[in-house]
## 1
Amino acid sequence: MTASKSLRALREAIVLEHLEAENEGEFEGAVGVFDHARWEVMATGEVIEGRAAVVGYYERVVAAGPRLSSRVVSLHHAEGAVIVELRLDGDGVGGRSGVFFLFDGARLVGKRVYGGWEEKSRHPVAGMAAPLLSDGNRT
């Protein structure tokens, strides 16, 4: 395996480990794969920086409900990123999200989330920014 292929395989394994931990609700594990935990939520402009802040973000999202799970639809490699399209499913919500996992070499240093879940019941989730609906409007 060439160095390029082995780096791609390593990056992909890190991303898949992160996504699996998220789906299992193991947020310390999800954050643990990052060399530096930094989330950028593009729909709201929110930046969450640091391990404790990101775990706190997960806890707020789970407390606000509903519980979501994700499934990889497609995965692509770029120079400094792994780009993943996800299908999101949960009670009363669903949607697709594009996520850029940002790397410095083999080190995972950030996560940039585009899009997200759509509310099927159109009720706001307490304490969280209203999601974009498929028509581009907010709830």
## 2
Amino acid sequence: MPSRSPPWLAQNDLLYRAIVVTDSAAWQRLTESRSPLILVPLFSDAPDLAAAVDHGHRVILIAEPGDIIRNAKKIELRKVDRATAREALKAVVSDSNKAEAMVALARRSVPALVRSIAREPRFRAPEWVTNTDQAAILAPLVLVGSWTRAEGDLAVIERLTGRSRDDIDRLLKSLAGHADAPFVRSGGTWRVTSPAEAALLLLPTLTDGELARWAEVVADVLLTPDPYQGMDAVARLTASAQGTNPTHSETLRKGVADGLALAAASDVELPADLAMQGRVSRLVHDLLQAANADDTGTIWARLASILPSLAEAAPEVFQDAVELDLDRTDPILRTMFQDSGADTLFGPSSPHPNLLWALETLCWSTTYFGRAAALLGRLSALDPGGRLSNRPIESLQNVAAGWLPQSGASVDDKLAVIARLMQREPDVGWTLALGVWPQSHAVAFQPHAPTYRDWSPVRQSVTYADWGHFVHELVILVTAAAGTDASPLERACSADR
């Protein structure tokens, strides 16, 4: 009985016989080969299929979305399998977050993934960029990123582009079948395939009129009152069942906020006359100025879910707004802590974690770490406590921990923050110092990270030298601050027991 070849051997044999042919001359030579081949023609001239088949070769033709296929066996390429892709990337991509982003992009557009990791920085612009009529619709859509079929969302899209929803939908559907589609649709939601690439290719085509409409849309979408605000989960479900719904979906609101961060992060690669960072900073300033002008805290709470994006979009403006409020006798941001009451059916909720995540995001930057960490310290002093585990002091401990590179700070930067807080907010400073004190079983959570800004730490681990320096200086700092009071030192020494 003859033995059967293992499956992997048969697969390798197919790969060895498969050839992508890019010109007609090579095609003619290969069709005369006596060895049976699998030929994939990718050239403009019509290939001589009869010659290839008559010589015993197999031919695979690439079909475009608009092609009509008759009496042929179709091979449909499905989306990249998420689990398989994760496993394949483990050996070559050490950063799990980067690997996950690559998997997500591959599932949306393989050509976009290839361009994002290619060593060759040059590539040919897709047709939807060179076609000015298509680009005129697509460019404004990049600034909102994602939206649903809700009436309020579609009205915003029409207003932003100056085109009817039917024209927009027709264009996106015509492009969606292509491997290089700029937008993909899933579950009734349109979203941009590769935001960073789309920004680089399309935002330079924006006109002054489109930018002006964008500014109006940002204010309208992000400041429109939420009919659910102030309701607990049960009340929201009841209101929704009775037909009460927000004007705009949360998908659109997040898309608009992310669009601000995307546009600002792309500023260095965009034409200087767009002055994109300046435009974004003014938009974020106006939003946060409105929040600080509302003594009830309603607007701060309304903006809560998108605060991390606003911070990433305009870091200095965001920190200015938070600091301006904290300098008041009665800060409005105190109203963000709303989890001190009794649990509801679905557990406690509060808008304040979003504010913490926004400042955590800024802590990844070497430029903004010191000030953002100081603001977390001031919020720690303001925090009335509550049922949620997300507290300012926990955020501060995560970004200041000496044994993890979870921020853009050096060891000395972290020690400087601890020292400054021990002087200005002694209770917070001591809690922080003891929170980052060396322990055998210390636990820390990764702070909220930026979506588009490249603020990743240079090193993915802390050296023994840095860790030793941190511990040494921390002991000196705590000992000096304690003076003749031994109780803080006793708490520090007992922390590892």
